[in-house]
Amino acid sequence: MMPSDFPPWPRVYAFFARWRDAGLVAELHDRLREAVRDAEGRDREPSAAVIDSQSVKADATVALTSRGFDAGKKINGRKRHLLTDTLGLLLAVLVTPASTTDRDAARILLPTAKGRFGRLARVWADGGYTGHLGDWSAAQLGVVLDIVRRSDDTRGFRVLPRRWVVERSLAWCLRGRRLVRDYERRTDTSEAVIWWSMTMLMSRRLAARGQGPVPARAA
Q1: 10 Å Cβ neighbour count for 65?
Q2: The Transposase IS4-like domain covers which part of the protein (predicted)?
Q3: Do 100 and 188 contact (CB within 8 A), yes or no?
Q4: How far apart are CA 91 and CA 48, in angstroms?
Q5: What is the distance between the alpha carbons of residues 203 and 207, in angstroms, rounded to a whole number?
Q6: Which of 30, 102, 104, 177 is the most exposed, having the fewest neighbouring CB atoms within 10 Å of its CB?
Q7: What's the pTM?
Q8: What is the pLDDT of residues 3-43, one digit of tens each?
């Protein structure tokens, strides 16, 4: 379902795979994120973030070794773990079997994010991240994990402070045809598709603002 003026799909996919393996997809995304944050009057490097996950069904092409069953959501597939800034822009992503707990994934995702964003000092999360993760994050990373809980007497839909930001980002992902479910054999390909989806979103946002090209970083 590619545009008719594109080359044959194996050639297009070969370029995508090359960019994925070289980290160019994430690099392009990060430059656009910095441009969007500049346009919003924010520092290019965030000091706070929001984390959440999304379980999606996996296609038959996804091997049993990289898929699992999310008992809470009753989904057999994979789970996307997203860390976003307070604007909902993607900072880090990890794709795991759906059986992976949010806490276990956060122990991988948070150190990676802290290594890239030294200013990161606070992360908001939902009740799935409670437990020893908060103490571990503070002691090992110097990052405060702030749990935003849903009140026990709350009925129906309620927008929760901070959490809605990453939940909106997860909803943005589902607007992409390739992200409605997971079709990829490799988890790093799934992650690259998420980076690419957010890249398209930010490029449209910058185009609407009339922003010029993103300046290259100094060598």
Answers
A1: 7
A2: 45-197
A3: no
A4: 11
A5: 6
A6: 177
A7: 0.88
A8: 788 888 899 999 999 999 999 999 999 999 999 999 999 99
